[in-house]
Amino acid sequence: MTIKNRSKICLIISAVIILVALGLHLSGNGINLGIDFAGGLSMQYDMKTAVTSADVTNVLENMGVTNSTVTVQGRDNNEVNIRIKDITKDDIQKVQADFEAGIKETYPEAVSIGDVNYVGPVAGDTLVRNAIISVLLAAGLMLVYIAIRFDLNSGLAAVFGLLHDVLIMLSFMVIFRSVIQMNSSFIAAALTIVGYSINNTIVIFDRIRENAKKMPTAPREEVTNISIRESLGRTICTTVTTLITIVALCILGVASIREFALPIIVGILSGVYSANMINGYVWAFLEEKRRSRKAKA
Q1: Which of 155, 247, 259, 272 could form an SS bridge with 146, CB 3.0 to 4.6 Å?
Q2: Is residue 180 left, alpha or beta, with left meaning phi > 0 and alpha meaning psi from -120 to 50?
């Protein structure tokens, strides 16, 4: 199999995806933030019989609540989780009482289960800030590790790919805002992809280092091509194995599991894409620049 440098085309594709997401965000159609980030109320009820989300939504709309998410769950589809955004703490008891009165007209045995959780805007802002700090801290520490383990250019290329994967994940969260909300599980997904992306990149960089020693005078792009080809079988096997599990979770899981699994699927595909099509060639570009500076000196 012949591997060629297509990094410029790949970077253009990635840039287009990110710019489309940025345009949507600036036009007011950004990420669909769940209550963990935007603040709001979460309630859970057992209806004692099979329930449809349409019945619950009708009750909420009759109350004047339009910005809500209803998830039917439970073995017999008898439980419902309701998330309501744009609500103040003072309105919680009224909303809960009005909902119970309305839903019992259709499901008279409905009872509240679990805790009624409220997340205020301040807590949501803190979560956003902590998420950003977590990703940046992970990127910084990985840069230090890879720079020590390999070299500085490898570290810079790996962190470039890592940030690329996180931006692609965020872009898809914007583009598919009607399908998925961003809640606290997204932080776990983002940090998981940070680790997964670096793992793929390090495997290829380890092969690049070995081949670079064998071919010290060869162009760095050629070394990268050979290294990617030699690692491709391993990359495909591990990626397909991981995707089978995550896709199964996404299909069979409840809404909260899908909120975690969908970004993971996007991140895994983006991580494989960047590790094989971008990161190694970023390293090759930086190495050639270093070589030319050294030759001039």
Answers
A1: 155
A2: beta
